[in-house]
Each structure stands twice: as C-alpha cells, then as structure tokens.
Design brief:
Helices cover about 45% and strands about 20% of the residues. It is of the alpha+beta class.
Length: about 150
C-alpha cells in the first residue's frame, strides 16, 4: 500500500539530490506504468557516483566522499531512509546507472493503488518507526560533535 506522504518524501529526496549534484545540465523526471506498478525515473547530468561507492549508496551515513560532504552537505541518510520507506510501501528503489561527470539515474517502482482504504494503524506505526530511527541517528550525530567556545 503506497502512503502518499512517504511517496512524496522519497521523490523529494531523489529529485533534491539530483538538483543538488547537478550544477549544469538537466534533471529529468519521467514515469511509466503497467497493470500493477508505477515506475518513476529521476535522471540527471550531474556529478555521478564512482563505481566503488555505488554498492554502499543506500547504507546509512554514506556519501560519495568527504569532499562531496564538505561541498554539498547532508547527513548521508536520504537514500537510506528513501529505501526503507519504499520497501515498506512494497516497492523498490534502484540505482539504474551512474558515471562520474556524466550523471545518475534512479528508479522507484511502486504498486498501483488497489482502491483499498489506507490502514491508518500501519501508517502510524511506520511513521513512528521512521521517526524513532531518525531520532536515534540524530542523537548519534549530536554525540559525535563537540561545541568549542571561542
């Protein structure tokens, strides 16, 4: 069952990343459907991702490298959370291709709505679990920083 709020959260993250890492060129969003699924493709002509970084891309706290982290910011959680949300909606999120200095393409495949009512208990539970995971990650991040007085 696709949760509209989570669906937009996943797309917002993927499109946001595409825009953030594309200083020049294009970001294209397209969609296709069959009887059971909708597939959204987000493609850019940006920085791209080195082959050796691609297999860990959906891990928590993973970014291309420290230079990218310094230049573009971010926690390295966006793709991790997007994958978790997509899988909870019975879908998949895939890095279709990426080449350094050529761009990147991600796809999200989700089941079409079946006309059933949303199970509010499941949606609430999923939202609470994601919020708890984000809070846990934020706490870890805060513990790793030291405040220096000037």
């Amino acid at each position: 069952m696709t949760d509209e709020t989570r669906f937009w959260q996943v797309l917002f993250n993927l499109i946001g990343n595409a825009i953030k890492f594309t200083e020049r060129g294009n970001v294209t969003v397209s969609a296709a459907e069959d009887d059971q699924f909708v597939k959204i493709i987000i493609e850019d002509t940006g920085l791209g991702i080195a082959k050796e970084k691609q297999e860990k891309l959906f891990n928590a706290f993973t970014q291309g490298d420290s230079e990218i982290s310094r230049q573009y910011g971010g926690s390295g959680l966006g793709l991790y959370i997007s994958r978790q949300l997509t899988e909870r909606m019975k879908g998949t999120i895939i890095l279709e291709w990426s080449e350094p200095e050529q761009g990147t393409s991600f796809s999200v495949r989700l089941p079409k709505a079946s006309g059933k009512l949303v199970n509010l208990d499941e949606t609430l539970e999923m939202t609470q679990e994601v919020a708890a995971a984000v809070e846990k990650v934020e706490n870890k991040l805060l513990k790793s920083f030291k405040v220096l007085a000037g």
